[in-house]
Amino acid sequence: MQSSRGRLRVRELKLAFIGFGTVAQGCARHIVNNRQRLEQEHGFRCKVVAISDPAKGSLLNLNEGIDLEQALQHVNERKTLEDLNGKTGLCSTETIAASHADVLVEATWTNLENGEPGLSHIIAALEGGMDVATSNKGPIALAFKKLTNLAKSKGRQLRFESTVMSGTPLLNLREFCLSGSKIRALRGILNGTTNYILTEMGEGRSYSEALRRAQELGYAEADPSGDVEAHDPAAKITILANALMEADLDFKRVEKEGITRIEMKDVEKAIEDGRVLKLIASAHRNERGQVEASVKPTLLPETDTLAHVGGVMNALQISMDTQPDVTIIGPGAGGDSAGYGLLVDILTIHRMRLNAKLVE
Ligand SMILES: NC(=O)c1ccc[n+]([C@@H]2O[C@H](COP(=O)([O-])OP(=O)(O)OC[C@H]3O[C@@H](n4cnc5c(N)ncnc54)[C@H](OP(=O)(O)O)[C@@H]3O)[C@@H](O)[C@H]2O)c1
């Protein structure tokens, strides 16, 4: 990694962005804003060879690469990327194949029915010899084993830090800082929208008032069912259990109950009893050693760390066999945070590629 004069040798990674919405743009901004630091401290430089997004346009430029700053500006000004220099008009799968990228940055929408289109994008990239960094929960929650086995068989990396708690480190934390431990159980608040609604209800607002405020602030979507019916935290605890506890959970079988049936009187009763109502996602090993997971509204004593995680914040408590519980609290959403999670994955891929070269 070091040149003979002690300076870090800079290596270039070719990136293809598939899906260029909030999260991908957040990642692109981090790359643009920290270019010098990434080169000096990590020996990392990138050439963006492709961007593909249905509304923003599809662009391929293998030689000079796409000017990322210009692409961000274009998208901000609601101009099509197809005005910029490069080949245009390819669909996402054609773009992946033609890009010959080192890394696919997959940030299309989460589909918890069948994982598409992200699932096909990730398979195409791994089959084509690319590493993958994705923020897309769908493919990872639905096809974890298939995708990790494929990545392994191709000698490629599949990284998905920002699928759970965005840029707050969980998967990398386990891989590097908690290595050597066996994770016994996980317990957390993995959905910011429902945590915001429950926090507001604790301050006297009705469910519908709190939901409306969450929608006005951009925390909840027009159709909030993915959050309030707990599909989103169920996908996240599935990902965590499979990735951190070596489980083989099927997302569709995770027991889940959302917050739609919670009334003011339930919250008031909890407060009266000195308790706090939270939507808790958890996973543990049963007596047969199998991992079970669920998401459900839970009454916590005020002494519980998770009882104090309010608003849109997320948290995860990790129980392991080597030391007392570790709890990590941080943002669970937002383009900057999830985009940062993608950047960390890209840097990890870069570092592992350098390490592999050193071993060769
Ligand atoms: N936002 C967050 O805070 C956050 C946090 C963690 C993880 N995530 C996950 O990260 C992913 C991206 O989230 P986001 O907030 O950036 O969503 P977003 O703003 O809706 O961006 C997704 C982009 O993908 C595009 N797309 C859809 N189908 C495509 C295809 N076949 N090929 C290429 N592009 C396609 C969409 O275009 P159209 O709009 O034209 O369909 C859209 O521009 C999602 O899976 C989300 O669950 C988001």
Largest sheet: 7 strands, mixed
Small molecules bound: NADP nicotinamide-adenine-dinucleotide phosphate
CATH superfamily of the largest domain: NAD(P)-binding Rossmann-like Domain
Shape: globular
CATH architecture of the largest domain: 3-Layer(aba) Sandwich
Count every beta strand, where a strand is a DSSP E run of 2 or more residues: 13
SSE pattern, N- to C-terminal: EHHEEHEHEHEHEHEHHHHEHEEEEH
Low-confidence runs? none
Instruction: Please state how the strands of the largest beta sheet are arranged side by side.
Output: 4-3-2-1-5-6-7
The count of domains is 2
The level 1 CATH classification of the largest domain is: Alpha Beta
User: Helical region count?
Assistant: 13
Distance between the termini: 13 Å
Average per-residue pLDDT, rounded, comes to 95
User: Based on helices, strands and strand pairing, what is the structural class?
Assistant: alpha/beta
Radius of gyration: 21 Å
Question: How does this model look, in words?
Answer:
The protein is α/β, with parallel strands linked by helices and 360 residues long. The protein folds into two domains: 11-167 and 336-359, Rossmann fold (3-Layer(aba) Sandwich); 174-331, Dihydrodipicolinate Reductase, domain 2, CATH 3.30.360. Helix content is 40%, strand content 22%. It contains 13 helices and 13 strands. The protein has helices at 22-33, 35-42, 68-76, 92-99, 118-127, 137-153, 171-177, 192-202, 207-216, 225-228, 231-244, 264-272, 335-359; strands spanning 11-18, 44-53, 57-60, 87-88, 103-106, 131-134, 158-159, 183-189, 255-256, 275-285, 291-301, 313-320, 326-331. A hairpin with a 5-residue loop joins strand 12 (313-320) and strand 13. It is globular. The two termini are 13 Å apart. The mean pLDDT is 95. The structure holds NADP nicotinamide-adenine-dinucleotide phosphate (NAP).
